[in-house]
Fold:
Amino acid sequence: MRQITKMAAAALHRRQMFKMANTIVDGTAMYVHGSCVAAVMPQGIQFSMSGWPTKLTRERLNGVFDKFGLAAVLFQRKGEQLLSLPSGDQLIDPDATYLLHYTDNGVLELCDYYSFIPI
Structure:
């Protein structure tokens, strides 16, 4: 993981401002090339690839997941974006927005951000 990813994820975790190269953290959200890819919400971490399914976007999001202690890893297989969770791999739409959080019984859950319906 690149140093900039570690620094940006740490700033987001501490709710601090950060700006370096193509990545900005405003205290509550992380932006890559001007697109919001992650935000801290009361329910968990909101994330989106913002239509950019690139190695850079996956790395920044994986840095956030790691820093917040979420057992999730974004990866690409045969051109498709997947999120590896303890419950199995989930196909990710690069244009959709998701919420990743732990349920009351400690299960990591992926939900559609707008409906909060588990995927």
